[in-house]
Amino acid sequence: MARAPRKLDQVVDAAIEEFQEGGFTRANMDRIAERAHVSKRTLYNYFPSKEALFLEIIQRTGSLFADDAPCEFDPDENVSVQLERLARRLARPYANPHAVRMGRLVIGEWMRNPDLIGGMMAQIEKTSPVDAFFASAVEAGAIDRTVAETTAADLSAFVKGRCLWPAVLSGKEASSSDIDRLANSAGDLFIAKFKV
Asked: What's the predicted TM-score (pTM) here?
């Protein structure tokens, strides 16, 4: 059956609300259909089970956080500027209210029921541009390999600590001034790891 995009989005939005209120275990497909203003038959035509519906939400969340555009270190450009740009890029999803809402749901459910999420969280993490940036910086001789590995992890943790966790806890997206401050701090903090 072809999926009508508007109705499909209604179902997913209703499911997000339902899952956020009671978690995956207490969520009810009948209530999701009611919230979405669709028949139960329509709901089950889209998603044969609650698990399938939740998987759709996880995949959509992953696509909001995915960033597989090329990200390479440029030896001819100011390192601090590149680090600031990378930090902005990592923080960008946390400025999107829809991404924050979906991220809160997935992280909350991951904490309640890690087996349900499985490898999806790791898959979302793999789409980060950090590893590619630091790998190309190693190739350019701008940073040692072992330092690059820990610095990549530290930069990711820094952005999450300043953007992801405040967004998850408050439900509010990061502002552009929050991201500017984060990016400027990242440039200052991590440049010392490079051979400049």
From this structure: 0.76
